[in-house]
């Protein structure tokens, strides 16, 4: 006998988002989005647009299920930092973050049967300590920054660079837990933790 598919689909291949979503104790399936990740506008507008595109793309492939999608980026002094293209780009981003406050924006979309739809965003302010060129080079050699918005991961080695944070730490990891929990409850999910 075939088991029914979980009611929830995560439209992401991010190991961090999978780990965070697992904390709710809700069965879910992973179906990474194939949507092109491009948008214009400010940080919040961009993450909401990209999350919407991811959610719509996966929703078109699954029926009668809830789809959760998210996108995260970093903004520092008016510049938007996504994932670095290469090591030089990662070094550029880390130099921009060094000794400064920046914002991490995550857009989250949850949609499902019966026209259910929620669209939310969260912003966390993060301050980096001053980074020497040597620290930047050593950190890049770990390869950790290469697939992270803003070229760092709060839960990784770069956590030692963070001197202060205002807001949700899980938002900086790519999935704001408090906000997502509220969205899932709004959709009728019972959180099992």
Briefly characterize the structure.
With 193 residues, the chain is α/β, with parallel strands linked by helices. Helices cover 31% and strands 26% of the residues.
Overall description:
The chain has 193 residues and is an alpha/beta fold. It has one domain (8-186): Alpha-Beta Complex (Maf protein), CATH 3.90.950.10. 31% of the residues lie in helices and 26% in strands. It has 6 helices and 7 strands, in the order βαβαββαββαβαα. Strands 1, 2, 3, 4, 5, 6 and 7 form a 7-stranded mixed β-sheet that branches. The mean pLDDT is 93.
How do the strands and helices of this protein lay out in sequence?
Layout lengths: L7 E3 L4 H8 L5 E3 L12 H17 L6 E11 L2 E3 L5 H11 L3 E12 L3 E13 L4 H9 L20 E5 L2 H5 L3 H10 L7
Helix pairs in contact: 3-4
């Amino acid at each position: 006998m075939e088991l029914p598919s979980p009611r929830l689909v995560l439209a992401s291949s991010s190991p961090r988002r999978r780990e965070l979503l697992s904390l709710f104790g809700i069965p879910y399936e992973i179906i990474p989005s194939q949507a092109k990740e491009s948008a214009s506008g400010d940080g919040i507008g961009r993450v909401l647009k990209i999350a919407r595109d991811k959610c719509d793309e996966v929703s078109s492939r699954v029926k009668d299920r809830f789809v959760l999608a998210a996108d995260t980026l970093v903004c520092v002094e008016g510049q938007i930092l996504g994932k670095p293209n290469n090591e030089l780009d990662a070094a550029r981003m880390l130099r921009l973050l060094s000794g400064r406050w920046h914002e991490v924006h995550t857009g989250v979309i949850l949609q499902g049967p019966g026209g259910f739809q929620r669209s939310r965003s969260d912003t966390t302010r993060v301050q980096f300590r001053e980074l020497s060129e040597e620290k930047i080079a050593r950190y890049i050699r770990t390869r950790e920054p290469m697939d992270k918005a803003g070229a760092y991961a709060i839960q990784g080695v770069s956590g030692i660079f963070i001197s202060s944070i205002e807001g949700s730490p899980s938002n900086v990891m790519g999935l704001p837990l408090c906000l997502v929990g509220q969205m899932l409850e709004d959709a009728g999910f019972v959180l099992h933790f």
